[in-house]
Task: structure prediction
Amino acid sequence: MSVAFTREEDLEATAADLPDRPISPHPNLVTPAGLAAIEAALAAARAAYSAAQAHGSIEADRTAMARATRDLRYWSARRASAQLTEMPADGRVRFGGAVTIEREDGRTQTWRITGEDEADPAAGSVSHVSPLARALIGKRLGDEAVVAGQSVEIIAVD
Result:
């Protein structure tokens, strides 16, 4: 069938059927900065939902309404499950802290261990459920760990 014989409404309805954003099965541990980011994202989702409602009937822009509704559900669930976690500084690698490792080839890298929504490897933060964080949490200065099949040494803990 030619595209000329399809109804625009059908294409709009298909575009509006957005799947929910997946919610992690892991505990939603957050740092104070992570909690603030979730609250900001929730406020933005509420604003987008209100804006989509204010633009007239839902049929006018079903995609915008679907996107706003999906994001509002996701950020509401993430805020409801957020567990603000601040660990004491005891010299161990911990959630919310930073760790510097030295790889076998001499490269050093510093990572901050954060919640899943806050993690940004390009900016130097990894999720507490990442393989890297799991290998390092609980270790102390001078300890070794295996990361991606390579031995690394912990040279600083913040």
User: Anything to note?
Assistant: The chain has a mean pLDDT of 87.
